[in-house]
Amino acid sequence: MANIYTPRQERILLVASILTIAGFIIAGLYQYATAFLGAAILYVVFRPWFNKLVKEKKWNRVLVTLLLMLFSLIVIILPFLALSLLLVDRIQYYSQHTDQILDLVNQLEKVTGIKIMDQNNIRSLVRQATTLASRQVPSILSGTLDIIIILGLLYVSLYFMFTQQEQFQRGLKRYLPFRAETIDELGEDLKNMVNANVLGQALVSLIQGFLTGLTLWIFGVPDAAFWGVVGFFFAFIPILGTPIVWGPAGIFMLSQGNTSSGVGILLVGVIVIVNIDNLLRIMLAKRMGDVHPFITLTGIVLGVPIFGIMGLVVGPLLLSYFVVLMKVFQRQNIRMEQEEVKKDTT
């Protein structure tokens, strides 16, 4: 029997079917999107190492892939996960011991002479912060299975990206709606964005968090390690950053009558930590590419509600990708217009 559809209708129905099935797949894997994004990020980060060892040194492809996976797990994934869980654990502790926070607020009010907030509102705010933090970072008890699934999907994806790298790259070039030279430019731009948003930002935040925790420990602030971890995560936020941590810590020490420690924390924060942050960002911008603070801040606001605490990295990265794609689209249109002009002139 003859088909009842015209070739055009068949093509439209085929595309609609593909989009419908893709929609179901995306909806089903939505909560695990960070696994695939994480695999893509790690692929871009470790691809130069992989190419050097496999293509130049002639090492075994599978062995190099497994070594890179183990290295990323020990050096990147597990420390970040441990810091995240420590953050939630301590926030939950303070939510159950709100008297300590209330005492701090009372002391700050005495020093500044400003009524900060009603005690009931403070307790409510702490509870809300605990709920939000627990939602953004899976806890050990409720999120173990999710963590295992995400890590499993991440490393399975990463394994095939490396062991079948040539097929993976050919697939990208075949299905991406760009010309070959445009794809090469896109790949270079995306690599720079990953370096700036992931490697550069994480390195700056790690140093900032370490310096913050070390400063607070030297000057005798309680629970300095925890506040250093808080400083690490806040350092991802441009403009605000670690002053949110060491600023109140210095005021706290002043309110306790410990003037030398309070002044010391504030001086180290302003003179050392802030300037080191600016210096590192300038140095890394030259080596890894620069990202405007507005993109970083907007990306964080976009990414955290969707991806949880990983949104600190993924959000700015996705927004940077969008900007890069718009630039690539613009360049491709300019080239097409130039080609059309050449055809008309000939």
From TrEMBL:
Taxonomy, superkingdom: Bacteria
Main location: membrane
Family stated for the protein in its record: Belongs to the autoinducer-2 exporter (AI-2E) (TC 2.A.86) family.
The protein, known as: AI-2E family transporter
Membrane-crossing segments per the record: 12-29, 62-88, 140-162, 198-219, 225-249, 261-280, 300-326
Locations listed in the record: Membrane
Keywords carried by this UniProt record: Membrane, Transmembrane, Transmembrane helix
